[in-house]
Design a protein that fits this description.
heterodimer, A: 243 residues, alpha+beta, Ubiquitin-like (UB roll), Fumarate Reductase Iron-sulfur Protein, Chain B, domain 2, 2 domains, 7 strands, B: 563 residues, alpha/beta, Flavocytochrome C3, Chain A, domain 1, Methane Monooxygenase Hydroxylase, Chain G, domain 1, seven-stranded mixed beta sheet, 15 helices, 21 strands
Chain lengths: 243, 563
């Protein structure tokens, strides 16, 4: 099996692609393959990683033109074009020489500046959490809130978000408008607005409806298709737009 | 006036998992707090904790009962004054996080739901489905963001700096640039988590390389109880990903190749919900005696729980089984075997996180207070981070105003030395392969310092680890770049892990008894007369000094441990 991997030594843009032949092992994930390359062939290859169990959200990247977690993607099971995403240029431009029959194409997550190889600059993505104040405002008290299982269920899919930014990288609006805060932050805002324990849900809705928030979303729903955790941010954004 | 590579804060916290973040939140209002972390905080290993967090919230339960279960689970090695704090403060810590927004699973009447867990007399493990760590970490990170602490994300700490008897800062590598910077601080907290990656088969994240513990050892702070490594009974065969104890808490069975629920022979009363050390040994014995499936694993069977319960209570377990083993637990049993899971040992501290070096504190899995003794109960590690994050923070609040002004020169001299050291590694043209050394270390620890130990194995392991340390001196990282040089990071992590592997093995050799997670085939009984003691490891010049120190008893009488 071969991997064709986007390289960028100094960041900014992909400068070239390197081709590596890996030794395929049973159960091998794309992340395992990247480590095999870093360990045995090319120590200069950079990519982020941590849990290798699809819970930490570090290893988001473009695999055969679809944004995925490298750790949860089996090498033997990569096909591509299964998500049926609405495309934008990063998802359609292919490097010369790529043979999809024999090579898996690995590129950095779209819609964020490339720092080095598969490492992208996530500053903008993280900053929304702060500027939108996506946290609970504390109030005095020493008792746990009551919450019915049904009320908890309303926020369940949104609290499952691991902030891997795959939705952000799959979104055609994020491709065109850098100021769009993106699906994950909006889903998180909705998670607070829908939480039966929250005293002032309006604050989260207001910030989600700000100029660079929900109004920019065209309900394309790539985020719903690409999300590895079934969070479905697009559904939350639809509700934010029409409360 | 600070230069571009100097930073100064009152408090430097290393690690942004639950423990480090909870300390930061405690002190953000009072001091200039910096959190230095090699990964973005949300990528910390706390995120992977599944089953839950213990607190005696239920009717009829009590902190005393929680403390007793913890002490008995620890095989009486836990310091009972520390366990008392853990159990007493547990309800407050859980409620605090609930009020910060954690979406705990609920009972029908809206209370925080609790499930049974190994070694516990009550169903006292609060949970958010089987994603409790994820929920707690995201919530706690939100509060840390709100508190306004300074984050240094993707900085790898390369050394601690001390001036005589007190700490004065640290040096760190900015991963994005490859530059070494000086951090000057009155106080440093080590909250870097465990060191599971010393073993090849570990549930731990790839980043769990025990950096903080190795830094502490090198700067002269003692490590404690390092031989006590928890092997989780149920890790997914192949990838060693954790299959939560919650799976057994909800009623899952362990079944061998003959189709028998074999736990009836090892813990007839508690069965699958005996503590982890006992269940791990039972599974290993089944495999060793030929009753494993294909000779390699046993089954965790959830099928009788039914689709609905699995989807509601164990959705993460199901997702992992499907994606990483191709098995849907609704229809098929899950292949599992024991694997390294938790480090009971760590940086030697008292119950306030204080180390023998003035200004240096430690908390969470990186620390050994010791609250878990020889075996940790499930649900107590998330709890430890939140309870003691606050306790340690309060202690530091008292400490900082009395601390002496740290010397920037001291830190800069050290930064100069670290730059030279890294340049030497980077400029080499040939030498040993770091990945090969890492692989040999992992398999050596797996096979010779694992669930069952004996003297000849441990001696062979120690010889091998020391050989690897010599080989590492001549390591060749290959051609790389300065920016985002993760290969270099992995070499530095390997250096840390080898130091810890040596100490773990030394401890396992020295402790000629079987207690909790440490089982010696050649000394198969607990020996309270000689070993109801903590082991302590201190680096002196070029060797590691070992000694035994007393356990704080008092509340519960030391007894035989049966389940």
């Amino acid at each position: 099996m071969k991997l064709r991997i986007a390289r960028s030594r100094d960041g900014g843009r992909i400068t070239h692609y390197d081709l590596y032949k890996i030794e395929l092992r049973k159960g091998m994930t794309i992340l395992d393959a990247l480590f095999q390359i870093q360990d045995k062939m090319d120590p200069s290859l950079s990519f982020r990683y941590s849990c290798r169990g699809a819970v930490c959200g570090s290893c988001s990247m473009l695999i055969n033109k679809e944004p995925r977690l490298a750790c949860r993607t089996q090498v033997s099971d990569v096909h591509g074009f299964e998500m049926k995403l609405k495309v934008f240029p990063t998802l359609t431009d292919t490097p010369p020489g790529w043979n999809p029959e024999e090579e898996i194409l690995i590129e950095p997550l779209p819609n964020m500046p490339v720092e080095k190889d598969l490492v992208v600059d996530m500053t903008r993505f993280y900053r929304a959490l702060e500027t939108m104040k996506l946290w609970i405002d504390s109030e005095e008290g020493t008792e746990a809130h009551l919450q019915s299982p049904d009320d908890r269920k309303k926020i369940e899919r949104y609290v499952n978000c691991i902030l891997c930014a795959i939705c952000y990288g799959s979104c055609p609006v994020n491709y065109e408008q850098v100021e769009y805060i993106g699906p994950a932050a909006l889903a998180k805002a909705w998670r607070f607005a829908e939480d039966s324990r929250v005293k002032s849900p309006e604050r989260y809705l207001d910030v989600a409806n700000s100029l660079n928030g929900a109004p920019l979303c065209d309900l394309i729903m790539n985020c719903v298709k690409a999300c590895p955790k079934g969070v479905a941010p697009g559904g939350a954004i639809r509700k934010i737009k029409n409360p | 006036m600070l230069t571009i590579t100097q930073h100064k804060h009152d408090l430097l916290i290393i690690g942004a998992g639950l423990a480090g973040l909870r300390v930061a939140i405690e002190l953000a209002k009072d001091f200039d707090v910096a959190v230095i972390t090699k990964v973005h905080p949300l990528r910390s290993h706390s995120v992977a904790a599944q089953g839950g967090i213990n607190a005696s919230l239920g009717e009829g339960d009590s902190w005393e009962s929680h403390a007793f279960d913890t002490v008995k689970g620890s095989d009486y090695l836990a310091d009972q004054d520390v366990t008392e704090i853990l159990a007493k403060e547990a309800p407050r810590a859980v409620i605090e996080n609930e009020r910060w927004g954690t979406a705990f699973s609920r009972t029908d009447d809206g209370k925080i739901a609790q499930r049974p867990f190994g070694g516990a007399a009550f169903p006292r493990t609060c949970y958010a489905a089987d994603r409790t760590g994820h929920n707690l970490l995201h919530t706690t990170f939100e509060q840390a963001l709100k508190s306004g602490v300074t984050f240094y994300d993707e900085w790898f700490v390369t050394s601690l700096v001390r001036d005589e008897d007190h700490i004065c800062g640290l040096t760190a590598l900015q991963i994005a640039t490859g530059e070494i910077h000086s951090f000057i601080g009155k106080s440093v907290v080590i909250a870097t988590g465990g060191f599971g990656r010393v073993y090849s088969h570990s549930t731990n994240a790839i980043i769990n390389t025990g950096d903080g513990c190795a830094l502490a050892l090198r700067v002269g702070a003692p490590l404690k109880d390092m031989e006590f490594i928890q092997f989780h009974p149920t890790t997914l065969y192949g990838s060693s990903i954790l299959m939560s104890e919650g799976a057994r808490g909800e009623g899952g069975y362990l079944v061998n190749s003959e189709g028998n629920r074999f736990m009836d022979r090892y813990a007839p009363e508690k069965m699958e919900l005996a503590p982890r050390d006992i269940v791990a040994r039972a599974i290993q014995t089944e495999i060793n005696e030929g009753r494993g499936i294909d000779g390699k694993y046993v089954h965790l069977d959830l099928r009788h729980l039914g689709r609905e319960k699995i989807l509601e209570r164990l959705p993460g377990i199901r997702e992992i089984s499907i994606h990483f083993a191709g098995v849907d637990p609704i229809d098929e049993p899950i292949p599992i075997k024991p694997g390294q899971h938790y480090s009971m040992g760590g940086v030697h501290t008292d119950k306030y996180g204080v180390t023998p070096i003035s200004g240096l504190f430690s908390v969470g899995e990186a620390a050994c207070m010791s609250v878990h003794g020889a075996n940790r109960l499930g649900g107590n590690s998330l709890l430890e981070t939140l309870v003691f994050g606050k306790v340690v923070g309060e202690k530091i609040r008292e400490f900082i105003p009395c601390a002496s002004e740290p010397s920037p020169n001291c830190v800069d001299d050290e930064a100069f030395k670290i730059r030279e050291k890294l340049q030497e590694i980077m400029l080499k043209e040939s030498g040993e392969s770091p990945s090969e050394i890492r692989e040999v270390m992992g398999s050596t620890m797996d096979s010779l310092v694992g669930v069952y130990r004996k003297e000849e194995d441990l001696k062979a392991a120690l010889t091998m680890i020391r050989e690897l340390k010599v080989r590492l001196k001549n390591v060749y990282g290959g051609h790389s770049d300065k920016r985002y040089n993760f290969s270099l990071i992995r070499i530095l992590e390997l250096e840390n892990m080898l130091d810890l592997a040596e100490v773990i093995t030394m401890g396992a050799l020295m402790r000629r008894e079987s207690r909790g997670a440490h089982w010696r085939l050649d000394y198969p009984v607990r020996d309270d007369e000689n070993f109801l003691k903590h082991s302590l490891f201190t680096k002196v010049d070029d060797y590691v000094k070992t000694e035994l120190i007393d356990v704080n008893l008092g509340m519960f009488e030391v007894k035989e441990r049966t389940y």
